[in-house]
TrEMBL record:
<dbReference type="GO" id="GO:0004590">
    <property type="term" value="F:orotidine-5'-phosphate decarboxylase activity"/>
</dbReference>
<dbReference type="InterPro" id="IPR011995">
    <property type="entry name" value="OMPdecase_type-2"/>
</dbReference>
<keyword id="KW-0456">Lyase</keyword>
<dbReference type="Pfam" id="PF00215">
    <property type="entry name" value="OMPdecase"/>
</dbReference>
<dbReference type="InterPro" id="IPR011060">
    <property type="entry name" value="RibuloseP-bd_barrel"/>
</dbReference>
<keyword id="KW-0665">Pyrimidine biosynthesis</keyword>
<dbReference type="GO" id="GO:0044205">
    <property type="term" value="P:'de novo' UMP biosynthetic process"/>
</dbReference>
<dbReference type="InterPro" id="IPR013785">
    <property type="entry name" value="Aldolase_TIM"/>
</dbReference>
<dbReference type="GO" id="GO:0006207">
    <property type="term" value="P:'de novo' pyrimidine nucleobase biosynthetic process"/>
</dbReference>
<feature type="domain" description="Orotidine 5'-phosphate decarboxylase">
    <location>
        <begin position="19"/>
        <end position="268"/>
    </location>
</feature>
<comment type="pathway">
    <text>Pyrimidine metabolism; UMP biosynthesis via de novo pathway; UMP from orotate: step 2/2.</text>
</comment>
<keyword id="KW-0210">Decarboxylase</keyword>
<dbReference type="InterPro" id="IPR018089">
    <property type="entry name" value="OMPdecase_AS"/>
</dbReference>
<dbReference type="InterPro" id="IPR001754">
    <property type="entry name" value="OMPdeCOase_dom"/>
</dbReference>
<protein>
    <recommendedName>
        <fullName>Orotidine-5'-phosphate decarboxylase</fullName>
        <ecNumber>4.1.1.23</ecNumber>
    </recommendedName>
</protein>
<comment type="similarity">
    <text>Belongs to the OMP decarboxylase family. Type 2 subfamily.</text>
</comment>
């Protein structure tokens, strides 16, 4: 039996639960706001409260590796435990770690991320293509082999990304357009519906970026920038209409600010899940 792809597993969960992807970003600020110590115990309590609030309602969780790495190796032990806890609730895990290096090094990173017995065994992770999309080809292949997805930053949610991502190359395409075309080709190579190459496309982007969305074809689209970075669910249609079923709307701080009370977190989570569902259904 072949491993179902991330795209297939996401489609099922998004229909049953919602397409919303919760960002797990235990920054120093949010730990302080929740009256938790800035220690691995604080980190662990923070994640448990969110896992309690999410129960079996969440399709995808996206821990931000940086906030675990800042606690050193013990922070990574917490991360592994948290991934396991969400996995047990049937939630897909997407590690936000934005890896990007030469091909041979990328292969070692991919080995740490994807597959049973790997260090993290996540369902998806984030990558950057500044060293060339070709350097990520084997990572995408490894993701495919394990039913995972490699989300590559195409247009980020932050304004600082513009000069790099919209720079025009010798063939007249912007860097973002070229990366989008390359991701579509990697997905075409993987066969229909497998879609191991996803794209990060900020929800904060202007309508001009629709062209980039179209170039991505059927790729899954992770859309950060909702909430604290100023975009709202009402911004999704102008960039992603017609592509609703590909979108994973994601937010961290606008949910986390409701904590530490679990009931308040549940409410904030549902306040993000409901419009995500409505968008997916084209409502
Ligand atoms: O890959 C990401 O998730 C990501 C890409 C991007 O373009 N912008 C962006 O903010 N993110 C991540 O999304 C999280 C911030 O989410 P908010 O707290 O909702 O603003 C951080 O962990 C960022 O690293």
């Amino acid at each position: 039996m072949t491993t179902p792809s991330f795209a297939q597993r996401f489609a099922k969960l998004a229909d049953e639960r919602s397409p919303f992807c919760l960002g797990l970003d235990p920054s120093r600020d949010v730990l302080a706001r929740w009256n938790l110590p800035d220690t691995t115990q604080g980190l662990s309590d923070f994640c448990d409260r969110l896992a309690d609030a999410a129960g079996e309602t969440l399709a995808v969780v996206k821990p931000q590796s940086a906030f675990f790495e800042r606690h050193g190796p013990e922070g990574l032990v917490v991360l592994q435990r948290v991934l396991q806890r969400f996995r047990a609730a049937g939630t897909l895990t997407l590690l936000d770690v934005k890896r990007g290096d030469i091909g041979s090094t990328m292969d070692a990173y991919a080995e740490s991320l994807f597959g049973r017995g790997s260090a993290y065994d996540v369902d998806a992770a984030t990558f950057t293509a500044y060293l060339g999309l070709g350097a990520l080809a084997k990572t995408v292949e490894r993701a495919r082999a394990h039913g995972a997805c490699a989300f590559v930053v195409v247009r980020s949610s932050n304004p600082e990304g513009v000069p790099v991502q919209n720079a025009v190359g010798g063939d007249g395409r912007t860097v973002a357009q070229a990366v989008a075309d390359g991701l579509r080709e990697l997905n075409e190579k993987a066969g229909p519906g497998v879609l191991p190459a996803g794209a990060v496309m900020g929800a904060t982007l202007p309508p001009a970026d629709r062209d980039v969305v179209e170039r991505l074809g059927n790729a899954l689209l992770l859309t950060p920038g909702i909430g604290s970075q100023g975009a709202g669910f009402s911004d999704l249609p102008k960039l992603f209409s017609g592509r609703e079923r590909q979108v994973l709307p994601t937010a961290a701080r606008s949910v986390l600010e409701a904590g530490p009370d679990v009931a308040a977190l549940k409410k904030a989570l549902e306040a993000h899940q409901a419009p995500s569902r409505a968008f997916r259904e084209g409502a």
